[in-house]
Every structure is written in C-alpha cells, then in structure tokens.
Amino acid sequence: MKDVIIIGGGLAGLSAAWRLKNHDILLLESENRVGGRVMSERRGNYWMNWGGHVYAGKGSATDELLKSVGVKALPVPGKLSAMHLNGKLLLNGRVELYPFRVPMSWKSRLSLLKAGAKVRAAVIKYGKVAKQLEHEDYSVRQQRILDFMNNKTFTDFTGALPVDADAIFRPTVSRSTGEPEQISAGAGIGYFHMIWNKEGGLSQNIMGGPSTLTNTIACRLKEQIKLNAQVSEVIKNNDFVTVRYKIGDTEYTETAKYVILATPAPITQKITKNLSPKLEHALKQVKYGPHVSASFLTNETSEQVWDDVYAFATPKKSFDILIHNSNVVHAMHNKREQGSSFMTFSPANRGKALIDKSEAEILEIYLTDLEEMFPGFRNLVVEAKVNKFPYGSAYVYPGRGQIQATLTEPDGRLFLAGDYLGTFYTETAIQTGFTAAQNINSLLGFNKMEEMQNIL
Ligand SMILES: Cc1cc2nc3c(=O)[nH]c(=O)nc-3n(C[C@H](O)[C@H](O)[C@H](O)COP(=O)(O)OP(=O)(O)OC[C@H]3O[C@@H](n4cnc5c(N)ncnc54)[C@H](O)[C@@H]3O)c2cc1C
C-alpha cells in the first residue's frame, strides 16, 4: 500500500507531490506529459506557450515553490494595457482616455466613462476586501473574496452597455472564461484589480517558459510519477483508498492510505465512486468555460511596434488578448534579438466558437486578425500551433461562495486540490496542493508516531 496517490500532474498535483516526496507516493497523470494547463516548449532563447503565462510574486505559494525547486521568475516587463480597437492600435497613454482616441459614438464614450468610474470605485473596495491580513489563513481571505458582490452578475453591476463600451469591458472580464452576464460582479471587479495593480496579482514570467517549473519537478520525482495513466475509479474505504487506472490496455489497481484528487472538478466528481453527497453536489456546481490558444514564433530582424508591450487587449477579435511572451527575453538584451514569440487566447464564447474547428481553420482566423493589427505579420511567422482546453478555467458565478466550505473540506481519506477551489488560478492550484500535502504530512506523521510508541 502506498502512503499517498496523487491523481493529476498539473500544478496542483505536482505541488502536493513535491511536498510529499519523502513518503511512498505515486502520481498518476493521464497525458504523456505533466503540467496540465501549464504548457510551454523551448525554442532557442524563446518559448512557445499555450497555458498559464503570468504567475504570483513575492510572499505567494508560487514564490515558495519556485524557490524550493530552484526555478527563476522575473517581473513581467513592458506595458500591459495596449489595445487594438476599431482599426486603431493604442500602445501607450492613460487607459481612461482610450475611448477618445478610437472611433466610437459619443453614447459609447459616455457609457464607458460612467461604467469605468463605477468599476474604479468598486476596485478600491475589492482591494480592501482582498488584502491579506496579518496571521490570517489564506482560506479565510479566499472566502471573503468569493463573497464580495457575489449576489449579482458583472452585467447587473455595470448595466447593459452600447456595443463599443461593452467591447472594451468584455475581453478583460471574459478571461475568466465566463461572459460578463455569467460571472459575479465581484469576480469581474477582481479581474480589473489584477490588471490595474501590477504589483499584487499575477505578475511574474517563469524564465525558459512555465513548463520549466513543472518539468523540473517531474524530473526530480522520476519513478514516483506514471504518465499515460488514466484513472477511472477511486473508492474510499475506512482504512485505505482503492484507485483503478489504465496504461494502454493494461488495468491496474493500487491502494493508498490517502488520495489527493488534483483533477478538474467534473473529472474528480466522475471518477470518485462514493463521495459524500454534499461534496458530490458541490463539485457539480463548479462551472467551467473553454479556452482555445495558439502560439506563434516569428523571425523578424528589426524593431517592431510590439517591442516593450506584454499584453494587447483585442476587443471584437477572435481572441480576447495577445501576449508577447518573448518580451521578457527582449528586455534582457541591449540589442534587438531576432524573432519573437506570441500567444493568442480565446476564452468563453470566443473559445466556444473555435473549439470544434480544425487547427488550420483556427490559425487562419487568428492570422487574419493579427494581420489587421500588424500588417505583414503573417509573413514573419515560422511556426504556429493551437491548443484546446475544454476545461479552460472555473469561473465565479453569483452564489459560488456558498459551496466553498464544502469543496475545501477533506472527505475521509480524500483531499481535493486544484485551481477551481479559489480565484487565483496557478496560485490557487499550488496553494491547495500544498494544503492537501500539509494535512497528509501531519496525518502520516501522527500514524508513524503511534506505530513507534506501540513498538516501545
Ligand atoms: C490559455 C490559458 C491561459 C491561462 N493563463 C493563466 C495565467 O496567465 N496565470 C494563471 O495563474 N493561470 C492561468 N491559467 C490557468 C492555469 O493554467 C490553471 O489555473 C492551472 O494550471 C490549473 O492547474 P491544476 O493543477 O489545478 O489543473 P490542471 O493543470 O488542469 O491539471 C489537472 C491534471 O489532471 C490530469 N487528469 C485529468 N483527468 C485525469 C485522469 N482521469 N487520470 C489522471 N490524470 C488526469 C490532466 O491531464 C492534468 O494534467 C490559464 C489557463 C489557460 C488554459
């Protein structure tokens, strides 16, 4: 019997495994790689990226993990608030004045100013609610954040907006994978807080690409990880847990004292056969939207308009945001290096519109939009690849706060971990992986002490 079986080799599962590595553990991952929604590949000094790209900084669980694994992260360099709208590229200047610099009706401009002022005031309130208090456990803060304006949608809060005003708000909010009509007002405001406060939120790039972190952990854990291992059944018993999985056509059964389920909520609910009815019900309430993303590698040799910009909001396009991943590499050199690396991503309804299309179709749609932003872009592309994430992210909807206590309570010998247990994406994944590991470390230590005392 194993001490612990961890199901899922995304950041949540790997963080838990990292903390439990001195016990007899086994991590089962259904894909032929670890990382889950963290996915990048090296290309010379650059990397192509399809999943999480910005990570939490100082004082976070992410920072703790990066340091203990020995992986370097640097603050995201460059501008975060560039925008392309109605044929115009805005690279700098005050965001509040953007509506006056792009063609749009006066009705849209006035609505934007009104809604913008309302959101700004709410962002200040959110900042107070989200502040980490001294000696406060992260779960107390998380519940407070989930409960913030959790009784209405973001659209209820702003009111219906004219087309151009709506188009400016939508790409920021829908990065959560929910549309403004679906996500809670508090969650939408939290997104603006994250963007307007570069210091606090997700603000670090992992050098070499995000998979540097997940692959380094996997290399160290070696035979404690099994890839291509599809878990089909988890059954909790009084004294142990049974896990059934398949590698190719071969079926395996393994038992463990404890199990960490680090899979997205619908998978956790599907594979675990005897969850408590309350937890099963709560897992069914978690709502996800899709993400489709693509990575592009270019080979230009001269300076470009995107130099020193990290993120472009792209309202009314097939993607909500364009990320210039290589900006952190360019920032490290005095001379302009050849080439760049980009990521487009399409969450929520933009993702739904693309997810059933072929890779060639998706790339053509993306390249048409990119060509409109940067004429001549298509001819610079040397490599492009798409990835689809049906469970892109779990979004916070009105009422979501009510299931938090149930979701974060262990169920007998089962512990849950994953980004859907909070609002900080990779940071939540790592934090919940650490928490599950801490609980199990404590229980295993207690059991071992009892055994030793019985021998004496
Ligand atoms: C396009 C995109 C951009 C993003 N950008 C950011 C960002 O910039 N910053 C940020 O913080 N977050 C971002 N996120 C979210 C972030 O990637 C996730 O929050 C985080 O990676 C989730 O980690 P996880 O371990 O909870 O889940 P996952 O990464 O989904 O891991 C779950 C693992 O379980 C495995 N699995 C599933 N079923 C089984 C089974 N039956 N048996 C065994 N294994 C199984 C999966 O293959 C997967 O590896 C982004 C996500 C996407 C898709």
UniProtKB/TrEMBL annotation:
- State if Protein biosynthesis is listed as a keyword: no
Cofactor list: FAD
Q: What is a single Pfam family found in this protein's UniProt entry?
A: Amino_oxidase
Q: Which positions fall inside the Amine oxidase domain? A: 11-440
Q: So which domain of life are we looking at?
A: Bacteria
Keywords from the UniProt entry: Oxidoreductase
- Matching PANTHER family: PROTOPORPHYRINOGEN OXIDASE (PTHR42923)
Question: What's the protein here called?
Answer: Amine oxidase domain-containing protein
* Organism, as annotated: Staphylococcus gallinarum
Q: What is the lineage of its organism?
A: Bacteria, Bacillati, Bacillota, Bacilli, Bacillales
